[in-house]
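sry for the spam today, last one i promise. struct tokens for design, 138 residues
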């Protein structure tokens, strides 16, 4: 069994090599959800003879068992690990907006979604909006 690691919000190519030439339209990528296999949106294209590619894109972190099927026959299984894209998060925190309200600092991405919040404290450990000395993630 293979292990694949990808990052949220990034297209990651998945390559598949077969020992026979197959119709790329008949290849499906599936994820195990409980006891049921469900299709993952991923269109395979034929790159060269017997080599196929699809681009994976997940917007959530997860670890799951995936498989590729050809005409309802399982070809390969793998464990996929989708990790948080820390570089994208840093970008969003830098170029998004933030506000200080009620002794808390809130960071938003470029689309206005809340990324992180911090409680703010002065040098004496008291909640504060001014003369902030310490922040703690909440």
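last one done:
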């Amino acid at each position: 069994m293979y292990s694949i690691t990808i990052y949220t919000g990034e297209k990651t190519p998945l390559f598949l090599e077969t020992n026979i030439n197959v119709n790329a339209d008949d290849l499906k990528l599936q994820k195990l959800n409980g006891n049921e296999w469900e299709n993952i949106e991923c269109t395979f294209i034929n790159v060269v003879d017997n080599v196929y590619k699809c681009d994976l894109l997940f917007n959530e972190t997860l670890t799951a068992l995936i498989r590729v099927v050809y005409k309802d026959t399982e070809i390969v299984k793998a464990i996929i690990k989708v990790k948080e894209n820390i570089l994208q998060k840093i970008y969003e925190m830098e170029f998004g907006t933030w506000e200080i309200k009620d002794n808390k600092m809130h960071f938003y991405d470029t689309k206005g979604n809340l990324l992180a919040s911090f409680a703010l404290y002065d040098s004496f450990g008291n909640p504060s909006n001014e003369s902030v000395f310490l922040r703690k993630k909440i």
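The two ends are 39 Å apart (CA to CA). ok im logging off now
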